[in-house]
Design a protein that fits this description.
binds zinc ion; HIT family, subunit A; nine-stranded antiparallel sheet; 6 helices; alpha+beta; binds 5,6-dihydrouridine-5'-monophosphate; 20% strand; three-stranded mixed sheet
């Protein structure tokens, strides 16, 4: 029998951040596809849409009017999932029916006044302004005594449930540390206690020495397909310096972050020559007043597309009932992304 080969044989991979296992089935990548085929959304959009609730000067739900903003613009979500003035309370019936009140603040961040753009189409200097806003918001929301975690994220594309193509992201901040950051925190903490090192510093050093899952990098950040990726073209962006949060970024690192976001999302758009949908967001130290040396600032990009602009990966069946599964290996996905141009497909001569 042939020796075990990650590129050929079914296997499970361990995610040390969440301590979950992922099933990888590389031998299936050649099977014929008979699934759903969707039509891609039309690409051309005007710079200003009179019906868009995020465009400058337009009215939002509840009748508030956006200012004539010229850069970024942040406002409190008109349909916030969390509210700052929720009364504190608890509900329980025995040990099985439990509920606790949760306070929070939700905001929307417009990346640009230009309705037609997306992050990869914005100049690096404009993305740097978005980075500045993320830092500001992390600090502003995090400084409130009842806010202990600030989740910054972007849903991009209809496929991901994004309600509006205007370039924007969201921030949900609340009292407790949400489930996934809490899982990561527990792993980062026990790794630091047991080994005396940061899990993600060590992981990054290992990946940089191997090279096969690196997509692109600059002096301050690295984009890679994690060994334990679940989504076909899932990536992580890691700071090269051990930073616990956005607050610790130097001005050069803020530029470095803008640079890596532009380069990674441009590669994504070039993969299927489309505006590539994804959900992305930051994981970083909670804002609970503790030092959190275990945290290492990073982003996750979770894109659903599998083999074209219309064929996406569904997390159904086995994924819903057992654990995540993928066919394309992390190494093959990284190689494809690495070989793509950093000039967007519609900008070439
Ligand atoms: P998504 O596109 O990721 O769904 O984000 C848009 C957010 O904008 C969504 O959370 C909010 C929605 O609640 N929103 C407003 O705050 N005001 C509006 O007038 C419409 C939508
Ligand atoms: Zn708009």
């Amino acid at each position: 029998m042939a020796a075990f080969d990650l590129a050929e044989h079914p296997h499970r991979r361990f995610n040390p951040l969440t301590r979950e296992w992922i099933l990888v089935s590389p031998h299936r990548t050649k099977r014929p596809w008979l699934g759903q085929v969707e039509k891609p959304a039309p690409e051309k959009r005007p710079s200003y849409d009179p019906k868009c609730y995020l465009c400058p000067g337009n009215e939002r739900a509840g009748g508030v009017r956006n200012p004539q903003y010229t850069g970024t613009f942040v406002f409190d979500n008109d349909f916030a999932a969390l509210l700052p003035d929720t009364p504190t309370g608890e509900y329980h019936q025995g040990d099985l029916l439990l509920a606790r009140s949760e306070r929070g603040i939700c905001r929307v961040v417009c990346f640009s006044p230009d309705h037609s753009l997306t992050l990869p189409q914005m100049p690096q200097e404009a993305i740097r302004k978005v980075v500045d806003v993320w830092v500001e918001q992390y600090e502003d929301l995090g400084a409130r005594p009842f806010i202990n975690y600030v989740q910054i994220f972007e849903n991009k594309g209809q496929m991901m449930g994004c309600s509006n193509p205007h370039p924007h992201g969201q921030i949900w901040s609340n009292e407790t540390i949400p489930h996934l950051p809490a899982l990561e925190q527990a792993s980062l903490q026990s790794y630091l206690e047991e080994k005396g090192h940061c899990l993600l510093c060590e992981y990054l050093a290992l990946e940089r020495s191997l090279g096969e899952r690196i997509v692109c990098e600059n002096e301050h950040f690295v984009a890679l397909v994690p060994f334990w990726a679940v989504w076909p073209y899932e990536t992580m962006v890691l700071s090269r310096r051990h930073l616990t949060s956005l607050s610790e970024l130097s001005p050069e690192e803020r530029d470095g972050l803008a640079n890596i976001i532009k380069r990674l999302t441009t590669r994504y758009d070039n993969l299927f020559e489309t505006s590539f949908p994804y959900s992305m967001g930051f994981h970083q130290a909670p804002t609970d007043g503790q030092p959190h040396p275990e945290w290492h600032l990073h982003m996750h990009f979770y894109p659903p597309l599998l083999r074209s602009a219309t064929v996406k990966k569904f997390m159904v069946g086995y994924e819903m009932l057992a654990n995540p599964q993928r066919d394309l290996t992390a190494e093959a996905a990284a190689e494809r992304l690495r070989n793509l141009s950093e000039v967007r497909f519609d900008q070439r001569e």
